[in-house]
Structures are given as C-alpha cells and as structure tokens.
Amino acid sequence: MNEVCLRDTVLEVDLDSIAYNVKAIRKMVGNEVAIAAVVKSNGYGHGALDIAPTIMENGGDYLAVATLTEALELREKYEKYRIFIMGYTPNEQLEYIVKGEIIQTIFSLEQGIILNELGKRFGKKPIVHIKYDTGFNRLGFQDNDQSIEEIKAICRLENLHVEGIFSHFALAGVDEDKLQYEKFISAISKIEEDNFKFKYKHICDSIAGVNYPQYRLDMIRAGAIIYGLKSYRSDELKLKQAVSFKSKIYHIKKIKKGEGVSYNYKWRAPRDTIVGTMPFGYSDGYPRNMTDKGYVTIKGKKAPLIGVICMDQSMVDLTDLNPVAVGDEVIIYGDGSNNSVSIQEASELGATNKNEIVCRITRRTPRIYKKSGKIVKVLNYL
Ligand SMILES: *Cc1c(COP(=O)(O)O)cnc(C)c1O
To answer: Which domains, and CATH codes, for the chain?
Structure first.
C-alpha cells in the first residue's frame, strides 16, 4: 500500500527513464568499463534510496556518494551494494567506513595507515581508491615524486585493498583535459613500476565519459547522465529526463491594474489581472532568482510567474489562460514537451547548472515513483 501524499508540490521520478539511461550508458561504454553511478545529494534530488535498485539492476556497478552520511544511509538499507565515497572522511570517522564496508577515497599515507590498522581491529580489509590531483586543485595527492612514493607505501600496506586510483577533469578545454589525462597516466605508470596493479583507474565524469571515449579507462563516474541530464553535444547517447516537478493552483483572485503582488511590490499589475497562488517557493528548491523570469505550464500553456518568489509560495498570471480552477495541475519542470520548462531551461533561467536545479529540491517535496506509467511508491520525507 502506498502512503497517502499530503502535499501537492511533488517530484515525480520515472524509474523507467533511469533504467533506460543506465542501459544506454552501459551500451555506450561496453562491458569492460565499470559504471560508478553517482547518487550523492540524495541522488541529485531523485531520492538515492529509491533509485538505487533500478540503477544496480540495470548495469550500475558502484553507488558513488560525496559524504559518509550519504554512504551510511545507503548501507543501512542495502547490505550488498558497493558504495564508494569520493570525498574526504576525517580520521576520527574512518571506523564507520571499515565497519560499514564502504569504499573510501584517500590521499594521504596517514589515512592509509589508519585504515590498515582499523581493518585489523575490526577483522576487515578496507577498500580504498587513491585520489590523484592532476590540476583540479580540489582534493588529492599533488602531482609530484613525493606523492608517488607515498602512494607506493599505501599500496604496500598489508591489510588494505588499494582497488583504484582516480582523478577529476576541470573540463577547461580539450588541450588542458588531455594534459590532465597524461599527468594521470604518467603517475600511474610510475606507481605500477613497483609490481602493483590498480583494478580501477578512472578520471571521467558524465561529460568526459561521453566526450572522451579514449579516456574512460576502467570506470566512469556517471552522475548527470543517470538522470537524463545532458551537458554535451554528442548525439551518441540518447537519454530521458527522469523528473517532473509539479504543483497545483491553491487560490485565485482578480486584482486591478496598478495593484502590487508579493514583497516590495516589485511586480505591479499593468492591467486588470487574474492571479493564481501556488504552494511552492525557494524553500522547495525553486530558485528565488527566477523572479521576473520563471514560468509554469498549466494545461499545456505557459503562464508567467509574477512578483518576488516567496519561501513557500509563488504567484502566476492566469489572465491569458482559459479558465483555471483551484486544484488545477501546474507543471513547474517537465521534460520540455507541451510548453514545459525543462531542467535545461530552468538552469538557464535560474542562472545555474542542471545538477543544481535538481539537487536543491528539498525533502519537503514528496517523491512519487512511477514504473510503466503507474505509481509504485509515494515517499513523504516529512
Ligand atoms: C559529482 C561527481 C561526479 C559526477 O559528476 P556528473 O557531472 O554529474 O557526472 C564525478 N566525479 C566526482 C569526483 C564527483 O564529485
């Protein structure tokens, strides 16, 4: 039995689209390249726990997250999946990694030693991937000889399984990306001189994984493309956006020309206007800077938002639409068809990127999961 949905602002997630995307990615990379499906930030807003099985049953090999808390949430529900933290975990929290059999990124000999010891203490052999910085300058061993020596020392730790080494592209352009790739390969070959082999070498995220087949190595870390969010020009990969963000009209009123709407009367009616009020705002993840730019879609027609976007509510100009009633459905984001705002367009209007548009959708918005057009789960976080 599904829970009753007690909110009319909802995020619908089409599990068939996610399955389709994972299969398409598998087809693109072939069977020799592993897919680490990136489900950080609650699965880019889609709900990590409820999309994980769809991902893993359709070709995903790893679930990759950014933080320990995200990893533990997944581990609590899924005993078997391989869960990989791509970010840093402080020393004092590393025992949770070992106990939870989570694969951890490290970029210091110190953490290698700590994990090696914790493994002994808990009777486990922790698995790590080494992060190697080839120029992004965020996390990782810096590209120099001392780092190579330290990595070799990590690889010699007996109770540690050094399964992979990875880097991350800045995507600053074809030439600079190539330079990063070459630095990475050169460092790996120096480390592997020592009779050591990494099972997984990886440097590609979604964009690089699509644009640079020659750089895929043993694994890609695919985030955006799992969700059908495209950020590249290649037509090789056909994807389906998995989410639609929906709400309803809760209140309708007529106002006179010259009256203001919302804070500061930043918007004033240029004519007699029919105003609709909808129960979503920036607290639901709708960008406040959509003020004066955003629109929603009602019965297939575009309707401009008016006035400053509030925390919990937004207003829409209904004057030019056929009669709209309280309770009518509003499409906040759709797949771009039927005049809906796609995630791509939302990112342009909101002056951000597609990943931010979806991952900022908060827990106040219930997730509704669909399969074969039917609702299979309603998830009320609150
Ligand atoms: C988030 C992240 C990814 C996935 O990025 P997409 O552009 O969404 O594919 C890959 N690698 C690392 C290290 C990340 O932090």
So the answer is: 33-227 (3.20.20.10), 243-379 (2.40.37.10)
